[in-house]
Amino acid sequence: MEIKNICCIGAGYVGGPSMAVIALKCPNIQVNVVDVNQTRIDRWNEKDLNKLPIYEPGLDNIISKCRGENLHFSCEVEKNISKADMIYISVNTPTKTEGLGAGQAIDLKWVEASARKISEFANGQTIVVEKSTLPVKTAQTIQEILNCSNKKKNNTKTFHVLSNPEFLAEGTAINDLLHPDRVLIGGNNEQAIQSLCEIYSNWIDKSKIITTNLWSAELSKLIANAFLAQRVSSINSVTAICEATGANIKDVSSAVGADKRIGKHFLNPGPGFGGSCFKKDILNLVYICNHYGLNEVSNYWQQIININHYQQKRITGLIISKLFGTISDKTIAIFGFAFKENTNDTRESPAISISLELLQEGAKLKIYDPKVSFEQIKKDLAPNNQTLSHPPKVNNWEFYNDLYDATINADAIVILNNCEEFKDLNWSKISKNMRLPSWVFDTKGFSNTTEAEKFDINIWSVGEG
Ligand SMILES: NC(=O)c1ccc[n+]([C@@H]2O[C@H](COP(=O)([O-])OP(=O)(O)OC[C@H]3O[C@@H](n4cnc5c(N)ncnc54)[C@H](O)[C@@H]3O)[C@@H](O)[C@H]2O)c1
Predict the structure, then answer these.
(1) Rounded to the nearest whole angstrom, what is the distance from the C-alpha of residue 15 to the centroid of ligand 1?
(2) Catalytic site positions
(3) pLDDT in tens, 140-161
């Protein structure tokens, strides 16, 4: 089946960039990205490319080439569904906050709402592609919902559901989409699988396109994220051992990673993983394991999340203890609020939980991140933020556009992501700004802190014993 018109439901961190790349590489396909969030769509249509709703290196360039040509952003969900031969579901799939499975299971209400719309408004033969990360067997639910329209209205619509999970990483999304390690397509209809393969083979070598059954594709995405998060928790657990024993995490990482069987990637220490995916996907895996009575397996994966939480608690405890056991009325500069460099995404960022702990303890925070807006931080640290387990007592923080200004009168600096600007800091200037005794807590081991020592600044760098 030749695909001429694609509709993607969900204009988020995955829907936006992945459709932009399809539009770029498949000029003969019209790509319509739709969303219920009018503000988000307005920002995708902004003339000023600095105002796009998400920041990804290289994204603005593609948008400027394709938008208005074969790439369109709108809130006209029904109309664009009705025109499409292929519909991607790329909506949010957060952890349920209430009801059965709360705190672990995925809330599928946005996926279900999308499937219902497709069922009602699609025409003829339609391929439905799961792009969202979903619990294994969701394709069955989607197929059942899609078939409803035929039962009720005696239609003759045909739907083939495929699973095509996305493996991009924020901050490198465009590069990951242009040069993926693999593309995974799960399905049970050969013709539908071939249609999707043909789209990707416009720019991806066929040897990198893996086809499986639906359940393997759905499960592989959860397992890939669980393995990545496992490496983060593993190396972070080793930072605690290094600090206790006098070993150095950088030496240990490079010695361990030199073994080809282990590999050197994803062995960098830090304040724990963030982002919208790792935690929710592992919680979902834990839930699925429990559902199938695999309690030991579920306990194993739960431990990855426990270590992540432990690392963040360990770091705040350490900051307080180094600052003489109290940070009440002390000023702490936070460098980096997004969960990683080169993104404006703060979802599940360790900076949120660490900032909240510091605020609870009475500190005043001066926050700097080159990609995150004041409005976003305000939402994340709002005392009435219902999603937080312990909202701050006070809103005692300020936002800075200049990182050096943020260090004026600070007792400490906490570096929380690998933003390029933090690599080579002017410690002479910073030392003059700070109050004595001054501390730098480099939770990524990324900054040129050995330089800082020359200016009588005390350093704690993660995993340095
Ligand atoms: N962010 C990542 O790095 C990443 C990577 C791989 C996979 N994923 C997965 O991709 C999915 C999407 O993630 P995201 O980060 O893009 O989420 P997001 O929250 O940035 O975007 C989802 C969008 O879907 C829209 N939406 C929800 N229901 C809708 C509906 N019924 N009709 C129209 N629009 C609707 C929302 O308004 C939102 O704009 C999730 O399942 C996630 O786990 C995310």
Answers:
(1) 7
(2) 277
(3) 999 999 998 777 777 789 999 9
The DSSP result for 80-96, as a single string, is: HHHH-SEEEE----PBP
Ligand 1 pocket check for 366: Cβ under 6 Å: no
The CA 91 to ligand 1 mean position distance, Å, reads 3
The best mutation among 7, 8, 14 to test binding of ligand 1, ranked by most ligand atoms within 8 Å of the C-beta, falls on 14
Ligand 1 atom showing the smallest separation from residue 170 Cα: 3
Same fold, 5-212 and 278-461: yes
What CATH class has 278-461? alpha beta
Of the candidates 135, 87, 129, the one whose C-alpha atom is nearest the C-alpha of residue 107 is: 135
Nearest residue by C-alpha to atom 15 in ligand 1: 13
Residue spans of the domains in the chain: they are 5-212, 278-461
- Determine the residue of 7, 34, 276, 339 to mutate for testing ligand 1's pocket, defined as the one with the most ligand atoms within 8 A of the Cβ atom: 276
Instruction: Name the DSSP letter for residue 438.
Output: P
> 400: which 2 tokens?
């800075």
pLDDT by residue (tens digit) across 209-268? 999 999 999 999 999 999 999 999 999 999 999 999 999 999 999 999 999 999 999 999
Task: Say if residues 217 and 165 touch (Cβ distance below 8 Å).
Answer: yes
What is the per-residue pLDDT for 135?
94
Quote the tokens at residue 265. Answer: 């990637």
**pLDDT for 69-85, tens place per residue?**
999 999 999 999 999 99
> Two tokens at 359?
């605020």
The tens digit of pLDDT for each residue in 368-417 reads: 999 999 999 999 999 777 666 667 767 899 999 999 999 999 999 999 99
Q: Does ligand 1 lie within 6 Å of residue 276's CB atom?
A: yes
CATH, domain range 5-212 = 3.40.50.720
